[in-house]
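User: Please fill in residues for this 158-position structure.
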């Protein structure tokens, strides 16, 4: 379900405490419109995980084709940050304010800071400086996701 596939043979798979927050266009199927929402590259550890839901993706354009190295099956879903915990009465697609958006970035950063997460500003700066922060599948392997912008990289330590 995430773009980072777990591979028990890889030493990198054990470093899943870090995650990246993005602003990304997502089709809200209930309202049949695109929204720029906060997405996460994987299901993060810690309390914020209760507010991250997987949503299957659809092509942003009928002209998009998966590239030969595309992780199409792995990318068939994205993780979206929601305003409410899973199971809350307000946690449903019919709620127009269900997804966290650009306007919510200060609240999200405050939540992360207050709940034991570390905003990795140095790593975020390195990725931004080198043009690696905003790569989506379109730049690398033609998957179906649209343009996204990196907000920050964060980590959770128990």
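Assistant: Residues filled in for all 158 positions:
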């Amino acid at each position: 379900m995430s773009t980072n596939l777990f591979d028990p043979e890889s030493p990198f798979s054990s470093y899943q405490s870090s995650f990246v927050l993005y602003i990304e266009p997502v089709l809200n199927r209930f309202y049949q419109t695109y929204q720029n929402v906060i997405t996460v590259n994987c299901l993060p550890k810690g309390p914020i995980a209760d507010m991250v839901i997987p949503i299957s993706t659809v092509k942003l354009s009928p002209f998009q084709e998966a590239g030969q190295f595309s992780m199409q099956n792995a990318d068939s879903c994205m993780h979206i940050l929601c305003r409410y915990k899973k199971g809350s009465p307000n946690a449903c697609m019919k709620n127009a304010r269900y997804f966290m958006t650009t306007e919510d970035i200060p609240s999200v950063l405050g939540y992360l800071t207050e709940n034991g997460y570390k905003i990795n500003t140095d790593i975020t700066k390195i990725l931004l400086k080198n043009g690696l922060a905003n790569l989506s599948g379109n730049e690398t392997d033609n998957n179906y996701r649209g343009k996204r912008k990196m907000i920050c990289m964060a980590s959770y330590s128990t």
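For context: Residues 11-156 form one domain.
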